[in-house]
Predict the structure of tRNA 5-methylaminomethyl-2-thiouridine biosynthesis bifunctional protein MnmC.
Amino acid sequence: MSHQFNKRSISEQPATATVTFNHLGVPVSTEFDDIYFNNENGLAESRYVFLQHNDLPTRWQTSLHSTFTVAETGFGTGLNFLACWQLFQQTAPANQRLHFISFEKYPLVKADLERALSAFPELAAFAQALLDAYPAAQTGCHRLQFDNNRVIIDLWFGDIHEQLPNWLPNAENSVDAWFLDGFAPDKNPQMWQANVYQAMAKSCRPSGTFATFTAAGAVRRGLQEAGFAVTKAKGFGRKREMLRGLIHKETTITPRPPETVTIVGGGIAAACLAWSFTQRGYPVHLLTQGIADGASGNAQGAVYPLLHAELSPLSQFYVSAFDHARQFYQSNCPNLWHATGVIQLAFNAIREQRQQKIADSGCYAPDLVRSLTAAETQQVWEYLPALPALFYPNSGWVPPQRLVQQILQNCGARLAITEVSEITELQQTASNTWRLDASSGKRYEASTLIVAAGANTSTLLAQWQIETQNVRGQVTQVAATEVSASCPMVVCYKGYFTPAENHNGELTHCVGATYNREFKQESYQNIEPADTEENLLTLQDNLAQAWTLPLNAVNNRASLRNTTRDHLPACGWLTDNLGVVSGLGSRGFTSAPLCAELLVSQWLGEPQPLADALIKRLVPQRLQVDSA
């Protein structure tokens, strides 16, 4: 059994669905002995029951909110989501967004999902986008974005009774329509319980609606007791009746005005924040000394999850963060996302024991990570040593500087960038805005401010005593040889070695990186020959392969990683208009996209993309000196 930091937020890796396909090609659940959708026309039933009886096209036209939120019990094949997405694309106002939330105890494996959805050719483009983004079957929330963040889906894998308490604290009064789906109440009575109906009621906005294919008396009574006015309607096809309903409640939520958000920083965290805000329609002012000139400026960076032998808060966060980052880069910067896979070598006995514990834990899906024998490692690439390894098949690498530049470019006209000298002081004004003083003597004002300044975090947040640590790292670029150029993926050991990339007309690899807590602040960017030697010697020692010996250094780069004492990012709000994303360490390109989505979702009062217990683990206040 996995160790749990919160029994309501983390359980072992969910079991994937076991399905067969009947003579009509419809998937049938082995667990519940029930079909996933109507034998005759599953898409027509989805449209009739859920889209029509929640009155969606009309409500999209009259909604007072810029984002329309749908929640669903039972993701299944994703048919309801795809039908909803298609209708939204066809009929919703161009400036409206769709946020879809779905819970699934037994996620389908990708091959079964693909086969099931092939029955609906008119949804083929939507289905392919879902398949490309489909996450590993890991407990918790997986946020996927489509159509430049106009359509978001949060997939919550795991038992709905465990996941609702993780989701609901950050989703009250936010849902416009519920799709009460799942296998029939007589087949799956465990799901159709009072706590589900009560969560539906709490999460609904005033005049929130629901629709469901069933007319079972227990379901009707449970929904009425939760506060819904329930009516019967004609069922789909041969079904006599179905239920629909509406909730009346008194809640006043004032939408945020279209104010400009100011961000301090120029790396991957700042870029992802700018993107998340601008795609929601908010203008952003970026104050920066340079674009990707700090820890985000290396030539190549690996993107893969940080895992433990138990589902610790750290590994649970990185599972969600990795899947989101992979899909974010794949959809928004496809030319810069290299899905090569990452291999992690067990180069000594301690590392082998640690990796074996991860492999044996049962915590992780094989499409997230799997173990390789020594022979299998050499089958991946014959020039690797015969060592056991962990293989991350959907991981890969990005060119950081170009990636940051492209994300900022994708923000479009809503983003304004001002190059500034170092921001030295941050003060709150009498009118509750923020004044920023730069070393040049210039001043800047901000109504809502986010610090995403990496190594400058502690300086800017001195008055809050947020304690982060800067660690110097030096990366070495080496010229590719005939053998090294054939390296197919990122190779990790005590350091890392990247596939060859064309860098200014020359094929090079990145070899890194040193990790120095002690350094001189005024000269940290100076190249240290001893660090170059350390990078090369670590590669040669850990891999013990002849091809590593003649590699020649052609370039070096030193920068500072901003880290935290518990290795989790700092992500949250110090005041209602001062946010922080920092402490991303050496895995910023894995964690930044999800951190940005979390911070923006909090600011707008949207349902959030992480379990409540994990969100509390990320708050920057935990890093205040007196909280240690």
Notes: Residues 270 and 512 are 24 Å apart (CA to CA). The chain has three domains: 19-247, 261-294+401-463+568-623, 327-399+469-563. Residues 261-294+401-463+568-623 form a domain with the FAD/NAD(P)-binding domain fold (CATH 3.50.50.60). Residues 313-332 form the longest helix (20 residues).
